Amino acid sequence: MATNVAAIDNQTGKGASRALGIALWVAQVLLALGFGMGAFMKLTTPLDALAHKMAWVGAVPGGLVRFIGASELAGALGLLLPSLTRIRPRLTPLAAAGLLTIMVLAIPFHIVRGEAPVIKINIILGALAAFVAWGRTRRAPIPARH
Length: 146
Fold this sequence. Notes:
This protein has 146 residues and is an all-alpha fold. Helices cover 75% and strands 0% of the residues.
């Protein structure tokens, strides 16, 4: 996969450095894994059991928990599939921006609930998502397949 990833990044024509391309791919994969696992949990775990792992789940409607899980799954897939297939790769930075939005909205929610220590994760994931959105939009966009 590394060879294909490098080949995709070398075709950008924007003079993006190899290190930046690698950093973006690492961020995309880490975010996709993290959000994918979280989404799977939110979509498949019974809400009562999930509330024992994540206190906030008990404070919101079950439908919202499932919606967040579906949104995170869509974002995780959007971080990788368009870039890897080079079919509509401009969707990748949009997926990253969507995940950033989820993290930005989660921060005040957790602060209001007195869960300030939890926001470290939101900040880290949000920063990585912002990096991917910026990098794949401005510095190292992936060209679409012709």
